[in-house]
Write a structure and sequence with these properties.
Helix content is 43%, strand content 8%. It is built from 14 helices and six strands. A six-stranded parallel sheet has the order 3-2-1-4-5-6, with helices on both faces. Helix 7 runs parallel beside helix 8. It is globular and about 65 Å long. The relative contact order is 0.12.
């Protein structure tokens, strides 16, 4: 369900959390209804609550309050209760979408929710290391600001590939307006993305209808999570995940990240088919490759003997070699760590 065609390959995907990655209708309304009763806000049904998300939710809530002090008290109480009680389930199928996109794009999450909630949800579902940036409502309440902050970051092209470390190897194209996409369930978020100048993709399982999302400016509305992958990656969506993204998130079914190696078999890297050890090996190889790229030498040259002219029987170092050796020694110490 689309209004326009994608303009260029996607380099960055910014996900909304509530209603997009997690099922929020019941969980969020349950928390807010307690705040509504406590502060007499007059929001008497879930539908009225969902309407608050047609714009910035905190601005919408503020309009229900007597004054600024009342609005601040309501927001603080709402965030506190979210931190304590809000723990919604993922949308079925969305974890696979995130892990597949993480192998191709830089991923970020933006939410009106508290940072503590975002950490609980993402770590609890083994998705935390798929995302390079997280913008919570208690840190960056305005999503337009979050989008602009992401775009202005000089390192915004460096993502995470389902492992703790960030990209260190090779040149990546920095995301710009035409290659950055917000995925969301609310018309207000879509309008914010359009105002900032980035693309927007809607999802049909959240707060607002496909018609509302398209009217707000979404280029496409996914009826199922897998459609997000198909729309954003095209033919590349059929390629299996690779590297750390191929490691099962729950770790219960060993599967090597090296293609064509049966589950539980040793690929020869020393992981023994164990997903956690395989992921650690991938990170070590990334650091090793990064060192090679930075020093313009083969990774095997990082062997201690190769770095010591005395052991290699080399002649006295030429001018400038000492500083080069000091740099390589420092890199070698990092490799050993």
């Amino acid at each position: 369900m689309s209004s326009t065609r994608p303009s260029r390959p996607v380099e960055a995907v910014l996900f909304d959390l509530d209603g997009t990655l997690v099922q929020t209708r019941i969980a969020s309304w349950t928390v807010f209804s307690a705040i509504n009763d406590r502060f007499s806000l007059g929001v008497d049904s879930p539908e009225q609550y969902f309407d608050l998300f047609r714009g910035n939710v905190y601005d919408s809530i503020a309009r229900l309050c007597r004054d600024d002090a009342h609005a601040t008290a309501v927001k603080d109480a709402f965030l506190t209760l979210l931190r304590e009680e809000y723990d919604p389930p993922l949308v079925p199928g969305v974890a696979d979408v995130v892990r597949r996109l993480a192998g191709h794009c830089t991923l970020a999450v933006m939410s009106s929710n508290a940072m503590q909630v975002m950490r609980r949800v993402l770590t609890g579902n083994d998705l935390a290391y798929c995302f390079a940036h997280v913008f919570g409502g208690d840190v960056t309440p305005d999503k337009r600001t979050a989008m602009r902050t992401f775009l202005a970051d000089s390192a915004n092209s460096y993502g995470r590939r389902c492992a703790a470390d960030y990209d260190e190897v090779g040149h990546r194209q920095a995301p710009d307006l035409a290659s950055t996409v917000l995925v969301t369930d609310t018309a207000g978020d879509v309008r914010d993305a359009v105002e900032v100048g980035i693309r927007a993709v809607g999802v049909a399982w959240g707060m607002h209808t496909p018609e509302e999302l398209l009217s707000a400016g979404a280029e496409f509305v996914a009826l199922w999570p897998q459609e997000i992958t198909a729309h954003l990656l095209g033919d590349a969506a059929s390629a299996p995940p690779s590297g750390a993204c191929a490691v099962p998130p729950d770790g219960t079914t060993p599967a090597c990240a090296v293609p064509d190696v049966p589950a539980g078999d040793d690929c020869g890297c020393g992981c023994g088919g164990d997903p956690a050890r395989k992921a650690a090996g991938i990170r070590r190889e990334r650091r090793r490759a990064a060192a090679a790229a930075l020093t313009r030498i083969d990774p095997t040259a990082l062997d201690p003997a190769a770095l010591d002219p005395a052991e290699a029987g080399a002649s006295p170092e030429p001018r400038g070699a000492a500083s080069r050796r000091e740099m390589l020694d420092a890199v070698r110490r990092v490799m050993r760590g």
